Amino acid sequence: MITSSYHASGKLPYGRAVLVARPGSIYGHFSDRQVYEAMLKHDVDLFLRVTFELADWIVLDDVEYVVGDSAEGYNPMHDICRIIIGGAVELATRLRGRPIGNYEYVVAGRRDHCIAGRCAGTIRLRLDDAALERKVADALAYPELAGEVDAAIRRDGIEASRYECLHPVDNRMSWTPVEGGKPHYEEHGESRVASGKYQRSVRYAEHIAPLYAAFWENISESLDAPAAPRMVDASSLQMGERQIRPS
Fold first, then answer.
1. What is the spatial distance between Cα 99 and Cα 97, in angstroms, rounded to a whole number?
2. What's the rounded Cα separation, in Å, for the pair 197 and 194?
3. Which of 79, 85, 93, 125 could bond to 71 as cystine, CB 3.0-4.6 Å?
4. What is the pLDDT of residues 139-151, one digit of tens each?
5. pTM here?
6. Closest CA to 123 of 101, 107, 92
């Protein structure tokens, strides 16, 4: 399970408190601020480092499938998580020599098809009343997300939270805006810059798109090398100097 988590302190106290799964090797590696800085600076090495470490962990732990955020253009952290997952699954598949499942779930979008059971090829989960109550209570108790959770419940109704669909997704899937449109995170970032809370905001064309291209160029080079990607002790890797420049 790969997702982003936020806390004003840059730490993960509440997420850790409600976590029922065993934390993996990359859990809590970076704060939101560090990842945003990497996006703004076009520092692809940070994302490659995490990707190779995750790929090693997938192989060593004999993981059969990975589930993570969908890329929706809502939050760049979610979209970056999707890119990292795709790269790690592709590398791990090569290392292990057999397919590894890659699934996403709706984060901020509507779940109409999930509720109606019209999602082809998905793993569909229906929560009973007790599980639904626990899920909603835990989500509302997360201070940084309570407002978004409340808005989603008012928009879609509480029953929408009863269903979880894990959708199979291509490893190289990416979110792109419709022509003339812009992602939600750009609009949100622009409002924060205007209010003086941010100095700069993450943009799709300037930051995410070139990061995606440089990321997959590096992954493809690793996959095309004469030898398969080598498993390493990722904790010993140092941040490189490679950066990308927007076109």
1. 7
2. 8
3. 79
4. 888 887 788 888 8
5. 0.82
6. 101
Residue 184 Cα to chain centre, angstroms:
16
Contact 71, 173 (CB under 8 A): yes
CA distance to 59, 70, 105, per residue, from 174 (Å): 24, 9, 14
Instruction: Give the closest residue to 212 by CA, choosing from 163, 160, 176.
Output: 176
From 246, 217, 235, 207, select the one nearest 38 (Cα to Cα): 207
Instruction: Decide if 85 contacts 108 (C-beta within 8 A).
Output: no
Q: Using one digit for the tens of pLDDT, what is the confidence trace for 100-136?
A: 999 999 888 877 777 777 777 889 889 999 999 999 9
Give CA–CA dist 216/237, Å, rounded.
20
CA distances from 19 to 29, 112, 175 (A): 16, 27, 28
Beta bridge partners of 104: 68, 167
Adjacent-strand bridge partners of 124: 165
Q: Which residues contact 182 (CB under 8 A, 6 or more apart)?
A: 204
Cα dihedral 163, 70, 85, 36 sign: negative
Residues linked to residue 2 through DSSP beta bridges, in sequence order: 68
